[in-house]
Amino acid sequence: MTVRTRFAPSPTGFLHIGGARTALFNQLFARRHGGVFLLRIEDTDKARSTQPAVDQILESLAWLGLSPDEPPVFQSTREARHAEVARELLAQGKAYRAYETPEELVAMRERAMAEKRPPRYEGVWRDREPGREQEGQPFAIRLRAPREGETAVEDLVQGTVRVASTELDDMIILRSDGTPTYLHAVVVDDHDMAITHVIRGDDHLTNTFRQCMVYDAMGWHRPRFAHIPLIHGADGAKLSKRHGAVSVLDLREQGMLPEAVCNYLLRLGWGHGDEEIISRKRAQEIFDIADVGRAASRMDYAKLGHVNGVYLRAADPETLLPEVLHRLTVSGEGFGTEKIAKLKLLLPALQERAKNLAELADSAAFVVAEGAPELDAKAAAVLTPEAKGRLEDLAQFLSGAPWERADLEQWLRDYADVKQVKLKDIAQPLRVALTGSTMSPPIDLTLYALGRDEALARMLAAAGDDLPPPT
RNA sequence: GUCCCCAUCGUCUAGAGGCCUAGGACACCAGCCUUUCACGUUGGCAGCACGGGUUCGAAUCCCGUUGGGGACACCA
Length: 471
Prior knowledge:
three-stranded parallel beta sheet
């Protein structure tokens, strides 16, 4: 039997890091076993589901390389089928009509809570036939739960988990308006989609028992379950859309690389010896659901940043260029081929120094800037009157240099020798003049990439700037 | 409140009774490399929640305590 897994988000908000990891594990598990990874949009809550959320989820998954292998299934399109199953259960006597109104149920629940009893449905209609009074009245369909014994689930991550039947009550599978409830719809859909492995957050663990009742009542085979621990925020509480969760698209905006995000997520709650940097291909070979830990883990942005840096440094500059250009041109128009050529020269050195695309673009801004770059505070402090004088002198000196990287380095060293100063004392003012910052790629490369005219012009501009450094 | 789950450095983890004087990674600190920054590199800081068992031997097995988390809807 082919393995079939699915990711089933509800489109009530953005896809966050927790959902992304669930999708990742589902895809990895499917790939590992030569199976299929599917997506089901659980949009039965019409009040909260939105099209923008659907689009956002799809886009997030696509960015992460987690698009499903088949077109997504929309749960809302399957309501007739859900109702059909509910009616079948009713016909078989495995479910029954319940006539309480929602208001009455709320009252019952509140009474139970007040009396410190667990809020369970008291089962008034479980064994009562509707009388004349009920004719034409709306009713919900409830599943007849076993009253004795226990239900056990062999979870691939959590091990055997059992719960006594007394903890379960007769849940509603079809509302009085004819729409299915979540717990029911999920089972019907998973069955119809021939899902073999349900891999989801362990906040669903207790739901599983109720879902098993539907499988059992219909005589369907239960899929294997794997409940993976939740990801917590820095405060240790569950990550959710309204609590500390960062959306996947925000990570993209912050300049994270999708492969890096997946690598980080994979290592959160799962390990394989001492391996830290694991490619998608490698992950598909070694991922074992049994290796998933059982404790919740916390999101650590510092580590994500580090992993992202590793991937950024290893990235092909060609693929990074469009990303950088895009970030640099958000506010302006396109750049000429000359500037792009300069950028290409510097990019490999720049990407070694950045942790994410946002930093990379920032650090590259000086290359495409018009004229002299703006100085930050530290940089301004470097430009002492003495340094300015030397810059002017150096500009003159370098104007005769062959504009090749190796030559430029040699000329700078020669200049330092002649002037009896350390190379550093020349390099820093020069760096500031060229880039506006005290940090940059090697100075000889920067000089070379900028080109003779631009470099000399910037040096002269910095030398002629008489403004006193900020205090 | 009831039920369920969990518990190794600050964080992510390795660890399936002796290989553990508990390993790796991030973060942090110090040194080295160096034209800046980063990378790299060397070293350091730091942990088996607690208490009982079982065993010749426990981070590993059992029980309890404590602490954390999750679930208890005509939401998903």
